[in-house]
Amino acid sequence: MPKIQNIDPKVVRRSQFIEFGRIPVNQYNKTIDDEKRNFSNEDFIRIYRDMVVIREFETMLNLIKTRNEYNGITYNHPGPAHLSIGQEASAVGMAYNLGVEDFIFGSHRSHGEILAKGLSAIYRLDEKDLYSIMSNYFEGATLKVVEKGFSGNTKELAINFLLYGALAEIFARENGFNKGLGGSMHAFFTPFGIYPNNAIVGGSGDISVGAALYKKINRKPGIIVCNIGDASMGCGPVWEGICFATMDQYKTLWEGEYKGGLPLIFNFMNNLYGMGGQTMGETMGYDILARVGAGVNPEMMHSERVDGYNPLAVIDAFKRKKHILEEKRGPVLLDTLTYRVSGHSPSDASSYRSKDEIEAWQKEDSIIIFGDSLIKAGVVKKEILDEIQNVTTRLVTHILHLTVNDELSPRLDLENDPDVIGRMMFSNLKTDRMEEGIPEVLIPMEENPRVIAIKNKERFHIDSEGKPVSKARLYQLRDGIFEAIIDRFYKDPTLAAWGEENRDWGGAFAVYRGLTEALPYHRLFNSPISEGAIVGTAIGYGMCGGRVIAEIMYCDFLGRSGDEIFNQLPKWQSMSGNIISMPVVIRVSVGSKYGAQHSQDWSSLTAHIPGLKVVFPATPFDAKGLMNSALQGTDPVIFFESQRIYDVGEMFHKPGVPEEYYEIPLGEPDIKRTGSDLTILTIGATLYTAIKAADILNQNWGINAEIIDARTLVPFNYKTVIESVKKTGRIILTSDASSRGSFLKEMAQTITELAFDYLDAPPVVIGSRNWIIPAFEMEEYFFSQPGWIIDAFHQKIMPLKGHVAKNDFSDEKIIGLNNEGV
Ligand SMILES: Cc1ncc(C[n+]2csc(CCOP(=O)(O)OP(=O)(O)O)c2C)c(N)n1
Ligand SMILES: [Mg+2]
Q1: Rounded to an integer, what distance in angstroms lies between the CA atom of residue 636 and that of residue 769?
Q2: For 307-326, what is each residue's pLDDT tens digit?
Q3: Residue 26 scores a pLDDT above 70
Q4: 396 CB contacts (<8 Å, ≥6 apart)?
Q5: Any ligand 1 atom below 6 A from CB of 230
Q6: Do 86 and 74 meet the contact criterion of CB atoms below 8 Å apart?
Q7: Please, what is the end-to-end C-alpha distance for the chain in angstroms?
Q8: What is the pTM for the complete model shown?
């Protein structure tokens, strides 16, 4: 809580009632004649045409999936196709008033939204811009296929391009909008303002909030529409996204032009079902989805249910809601009522709904009814509508024909280039700033109290006389992280940071102390206790082009952001076909002293997921240099920090941590001490455990251990370790993570493979026990200890004269523990 806002007990203890206002439900009641002053005949017909295009596209996919045939073209598509037959009016109505600078996000069922937004963008863009977008996308590869022999105008060409890019993506072809790596559920095309669709239900619920933050913080024009299903209202990321999007601080604390609500519409495409679960009446309790807005904020999120079977009702709603966002009164919740006549997927037997119900909705078919009303109102003749259908069928047939042709539309050539996807996992770019501009700060860096305090600190752990520097005067690991971060805030105008207690408090472990003074609210703010959305919003912010540092207070809370860390953050660069980059650093602090749910090292979990870079520094010099690299890059980095060592000084890099900027490349382990008899490879704070063990080995037995600090888990250069093992013939690996399934095991296996011929004994892994973490007073029985390293060396590598091991690392013990599952 910022000090500038006082909480007066007299006010908050006052007796009162909360009054709720009214939420409109299907209030639109205009006729075509009423709307004639808002729409030209051409507009009405375009709305109809766009719905027909979506219907035909989805019908084609349905036939391909169920019969392997459409208009004489045969094809087998084994992958997904969640169709939206029945939902066309809601998609077209949503997209109709959106500009190219307005971004939509979606779900697994978003083909219709992609086409609707694409058609709307094509209508709005001038021919020159359109052509430039198409010819620059993948150097014109997608365009080339549809352009060959095409005789229409640029807009017509663009419609072919849109359908082809989308279908090629669905069929996993290289010319698809995301090189075929996204597929049906993830396809998107950013030049038309179509942002990622998400196969994880509710996945867009927080990512889209991050996109809205990007627009707001970087003063970009446009709004964000988060298209998600009704059943996703039960998902954590959606609720967290809603909380994040409606924080009071946008209205109360953000200043100047940054003041005001987020430009975001949560648009629930409410087709009344999950897969087979009925939301209203079975799996949810809201009765009418729009009711949910009432509880969220005093504005009730301007919530409304709109009839998504009438495109004009949806257009009307979006126009009104867009206006609210332009006045900075967002975000908005829309409950766009619709129905999917198609199954959840083409294999769906509709066992959960009656035939009568489907037929009743088919009777209300939005395309037929809208078409009839246009005819009745004298807007168009039936023949014209029929012709639209014919032209569309021919178009879809033509596009299908191009897409299933393996020569015109090949897949990525994994046969001849098996590493092609591997090369797409990271963008590996380096840039000082994501965008030119002057970063907004409150004071010059030299005037920052923390910067001034750090200037007077000793940047090496001992002074010139060799005496240890006191904690108060010592430049600590947390100072190294701070220096890298504040430097970037003054370099990159897009950089923003958020997390719990990031402002005022100074970050949970005082890393951010000094940042509050330096930065306006929109660049550093406290988030709700929503670890999922803390990461999810960072993803949305990053994919739109902003650099961001999100902080998860304790590693143990990563579980709360599991989907974001495992399914979202690592995937979007490659699933986009490298169209987007992801300059997102997630700071994760590994605890101690606080027991089983506050002390776990889960670095192995993140290192397991392809697409994340994982860093774990153990010294101030490395912390600063690695954070600088992480912030210079454009890839997602999970930056682990250990609470055990936030206050250590620099013991290795002489004469101390440089004041100036420097980078330490991610992936290079560092030899912290040279030796010839044993290699000890450490991750994180166990560097200091290894040093203690090495000192004892040396003093008692004259064994010289070489200590290598991994510093980074992904990427990782094994050469340094292999060279060491060639010299020593022995290796022990240690970290604070529970041993089973840890990254140490992965490293041990790789080292065995690469250095088998040089090893006198198999690599020895000393992780933590496979238990819950006990209280601080018992931690020495849980975490890797110097004595464990010595005992293991004695038992598994080379007997130490006169040594009596306290811990049992025998084969029998290992077999026994594994048998017990501990
Ligand atoms: C996190 C997650 N849980 C479950 C699924 C499986 N699943 C796919 S779609 C779906 C129903 C989603 O319903 P809704 O959000 O209303 O969207 P709709 O399919 O109706 O468009 C389910 C359960 C999933 N993809 N992701
Ligand atoms: Mg649904």
Answers
A1: 30
A2: 999 999 999 999 999 999 99
A3: yes
A4: 53, 56, 57, 60, 70, 163
A5: yes
A6: no
A7: 43
A8: 0.98
